[in-house]
Write a structure and sequence with these properties.
Layout (H helix, E strand, L loop, with lengths): L1 H28 L2 H7 L4 H28 L3 H20 L4 H30 L5 H26 L11 H17 L27 H21 L2 H6 L9 H51 L3 H6 L4 H19 L5 H30 L9 H4 L1 H17 L2 H7 L2
């Protein structure tokens, strides 16, 4: 009985950690695009700001895997990182020029991105059974949803009132506040001491040897390709939904709420992933996950009716659950036990790192290229590129991934 009580307390503490961890990112990740547009930033400049998270994902193995593994307990390093990153968001909240905005968000990303790996490590270290991780990680998605719904209500309060305050930009203030709360909360987490045997922070590159397996190589390459189109959604959808001239013309609060529907669907579709894997197999499941992207972008390109555009946000559930989570499961199955962690790190390095970095740069330039001189954008043309990329990726995956061989070579 006492053991069960302890497990419940640990589960609650770790779930709260995940909730705050992703509420920070969710606070500013959607609305900052509108804030920067209000400040007169170009699409290229907006993409550079968003690109800081990709840079952070690329170098985070050095920070999380070297500093935390050698110098201090994970929860202490996470606390320091969150407090300092909160300071960066607070300073960014007051910036009106691109150089200082980019610098503050860049510093925030360098401090924040390693904490994702750190909180995962803390959870794995204390929850006892790794298969329960999903039950804790889902609170991160809930954190993203709750903060976005809260911000939607906050923006709705100000809509229609006469004010010169850029309330969309207050997303950075809310992110900073949650960062400070998270920093203090980390100090209350159970101790997670440094590893006795520090590893090479880029040891995951050893997993490249698995590309000799055709299915592994196909998964890695297609994941990189699909990641390139992700910034077209994360960076530009809010701008598309709120643009009055040629976009959907939603109020800021409604656009923010609409994009949170993707995370709601993510939770629901996660429950359908394993039944689909059993019924259809890995190839069909991932194929459907990739196809959800061009379907969503095609609806965006048409741009009407409004209810369909808003409803298309829920396709994110299929995109993320069937493709990314399905891909993680496939990578896990194709990797020897002793380098499975390295394989997962390699996948994140290729997607959240280099793939999205390329996508950030491309999406910003496409956004500016298809801007009308009189205002607004040719959104149908902007979304054509990700449609083409994802359709090609889906077809290539369906042709190249060998389901029969995958089932035979699972380790």
């Amino acid at each position: 009985m006492e053991k069960r009580h302890t497990e419940i307390i640990t589960f609650t503490r770790l779930s709260g950690m995940m909730f705050l961890q992703f509420a920070i990112w969710g606070a500013w990740a959607v609305l900052i695009a509108g804030h920067m547009e209000n400040l007169g930033f170009t699409g290229k400049q907006i993409s550079y700001v968003f690109g800081t998270t990709a840079i952070g994902a690329i170098i985070s193995p050095i920070i999380a895997g070297w500093v935390a593994d050698r110098l201090m307990p994970a929860q202490l390093f996470a606390a320091i990182s969150h407090i300092l990153s909160g300071v960066c968001l607070l300073i960014a909240w007051k910036q009106t020029t691109f150089p200082m905005m980019w610098l503050m968000i860049f510093l925030h990303a360098i401090l924040y991105m390693p904490t994702i790996a750190l909180t995962n490590s803390i959870a794995f270290h204390h929850m006892g059974q790794s298969e329960k991780f999903g039950n804790i990680r889902v609170f991160g998605t809930l954190g993203w949803i709750v903060i976005n719904w809260g911000l939607s209500l906050y923006l709705r309060y100000w809509e229609g009132q006469e004010t010169n305050l850029p309330h969309v930009g207050d997303c950075l203030l809310f992110g900073a506040i949650i960062s400070f709360v998270m920093g203090v909360y980390c100090l209350t987490l159970p101790n997670t001491p440094p590893s006795k045997e520090a590893k090479n922070p880029y040891a995951f590159l050893e997993a490249f040897s698995l590309t000799s397996n055709k299915n592994f190589a196909v998964l890695l390459f297609i994941s990189f390709l699909v990641a390139i189109e992700l910034p077209f959604y994360y960076n530009l959808t809010y701008l598309f939904l709120t643009e009055a001239e040629h976009g959907v013309g939603l109020a800021a609060s409604n656009a923010n709420f609409a994009m949170s529907l993707g995370q709601v669907a993510e939770i629901v579709l996660m429950l359908l992933l394993f039944p689909c894997l059993r019924r259809f197999g890995m190839r069909i499941t991932i194929f459907l996950g990739i196809l959800a992207w061009p379907v969503r972008y095609a609806i965006f390109a048409i741009g009407e009716p409004v209810w369909l555009v808003v409803g298309a946000q829920t396709l994110h559930g299929i995109c993320y659950s069937f493709f990314f989570v399905g891909g993680m499961i496939a990578i896990e199955s194709l990797s020897p036990k002793d380098i499975r962690a390295s394989s997962q790190a390699l996948l994140l390095f290729v997607t959240n790192g280099f793939g999205m970095l390329v996508g950030h740069f491309v999406s910003g330039r496409i956004h500016d290229f298809f801007a009308y001189a009189e205002g607004g954008h040719a959104w149908a043309k902007i979304f054509t590129l990700p449609i083409v990329v994802t359709v090609i990726a889906a077809i290539a995956f369906f042709i190249l991934f060998d389901e029969k061989k995958y089932q035979q070579t699972r380790m």
